Amino acid sequence: MIRISSIQLFSLILAFEVGSTTLFALGIGAKQDAWIVILLAFLVGLCLLVVYTQIAKYYPNKNFAEILNDALGSKVAKPLLFLFALYFLSVATHNFYEFGALINMTALPRTPLLVILYLFIFVVIYILSLGFEVLARTAEILVPYLLLFLIATYIIMVLSGNFDLGHLLPVLGDGIKPLLREVHTVIAFPFGEMVLFLMFWHYVREQQAIRKVAVLSVSVSTLLLITSLIVIISVLGPELAANTEIPLLETLISVNIANIITNLDSIGVFIIFIGGFFKTALHFFGSCLAIKWILQVKNHTWIVSLLGLLLPLISVLRFNGLDDQRWKGLEGVIYSILLFSFLPVLLLLLIIIKRKISSKGD
């Protein structure tokens, strides 16, 4: 069986969690206190992560279908797995369309969106057909560059002359209500999305290290997200950050150091590409794995190829533009993520109860 190392798991989670989230001002409805929203959401996300990793601890080397079968029985497990497949596919189309639209807007304005999406999905199909280990190796190679670009971006923006920490004041100037209104959105995106990794824990070579690696990776991701948000607000101000479609890109465009360091939007495009790739590929593969387990087939290649070729069409038919995609995300996707991210809590409770009953019977 394919196995991935702890460093590869760390890279996958980091790429997945950071994804395209650094491009946007998460929790900006709380204005200058948006970074506190991320911190609160992170604490809830850590609790969820403990649940996800505890399930893996109870069932080392077991895939999610086997866990559901053991805990709930096949009559409940298969329909639930099918719902997870639909959910992962829904989020995949959401991320996929967003990636294509952002690339279309920033880098390839004259290229038809469908062409961009098909070029992108061909790469995804090729890598996934080679196996999950190849995707993990790809993350291991690309994540250091992603971190380098992000850190370099933060340093350049701090030195640009537009950086003003005064935009972060006053702390809790509007009270705690704006934080509470925003926190559920950030719990869902990106922390609740970690429910996807229930599909991949069985691929990890060092099963006992899963929780340690996952917590470390999510913590580093959170630090990057908070840093990104502080930089964006400090450069643009909370009002402009809230009303800009891609705040990080707008921030990069505004950078001008001695007329030498300018036009840094290409860095933003690189971040969009890396983030969009792993967000889409992992959600898409999670959906394909669920379908594979439901159908009880050995090879997932034909599922990846068939569903992959349909994904651009599904995405284009589902969304009428980036504004429509964002609206549907806020109205529907956020709540579906919250629903599926908290379902494993009930699953873990059932597993614990079942084990206690079983131990008493022995």
Automatic annotation (TrEMBL):
Annotated membrane topology: Multi-pass membrane protein
Keywords, A to Z?
Germination, Membrane, Transmembrane, Transmembrane helix, Transport
Q: Per its UniProt entry, which superkingdom is the organism in? A: Bacteria
> What Pfam families does this protein map onto?
Spore_permease
The subcellular location is:
Membrane
Concerning InterPro entries, the annotation shows: Spore_GerAB
Residue ranges annotated as coiled coil are none
Transmembrane domains' residue ranges: 7-28, 34-55, 76-93, 113-135, 142-163, 183-201, 213-237, 257-278, 299-321, 333-353
Where would you say this protein principally sits, based on its record? membrane
Protein family per UniProt: Belongs to the amino acid-polyamine-organocation (APC) superfamily. Spore germination protein (SGP) (TC 2.A.3.9) family.
Protein name, UniProt field: Spore germination protein KB
Species, as recorded:
Aquibacillus albus
